Amino acid sequence: MLNKVSDSVYYLSNQDDKERPALGLVCGDKYSLIIDAGNSPQHAKDFLAEIGKLDLPPVKYAVITHAHWDHFMGMNEFGATIIVNRRTNELLQEWQTFTYDDSSLEKYVSTNRMDAKCMEILKEEMPDRDSFKLDSPDIIFGNTLTIDLGNKKCIIEEITSTHTDDATIVYVPDEKVLFLGDSGYGKTTNSLFHIQQSLLVPMIEDIQKYDAEMSLLGHESICDSAEMDLYWKELKSASQAVISASLAKAEEKFRVENKREPSDNELFFIKAFVNDQIIQSQ
Ligand SMILES: [Zn+2]
Question: In this structure, are 240 and 176 located in the same domain?
């Protein structure tokens, strides 16, 4: 079932056991726009089946928030105009050259061009894929793009992100709803999970430009502004405590600055910023 955020904004919940991110839907008088296209054609079909249960305008546009497979592998299913930023378009080009039979998938995984989880999901959810080709995007934008769905504007914008260098967000000003994709997360480099410290404040500034009342991160349920403010606050206080690759020193600095122990979230973030210090010093 779709979650209803307002009369014109919905989303399909993420499903961690299937590596499925949350998928967004914005409806105007004439058309609908989706945010992210699913991790497989089956995920896309499940989303379309839920959309079909409601009396909504046809899906005309699909925005891909970044070039991670779990957000775009379902994009062929919608027959929609696919919208990506320039960097996402560059990254997707490799996926358009791929073939998707078993031996090709195994080759891409063994040469680190594809995540093993992606192969597993495609094998499971897409039995018939020997002739599959990923479509190419239709609209490639730079910086920002506004789409009017019929008395419903969507602002599509590139932002700084600690997750990838190709992050796009979608803001619906009428409803003050912000779709963040995975932009607020960290990333894994050489098997080390880290959050790029130098990008944290610029990213938060990019995101807080919007006066969002509700925000959806790619692998979360929707958050109100108080929950998001807490998330950014915890990230910032964790980052402030990390000035070297020493976890013990960072924890101590946190205690001195905040006069309390870090929460579980803050400790997780502190470790990710320490990892970033390690990666940056290599
Ligand atoms: Zn991602």
Answer: no
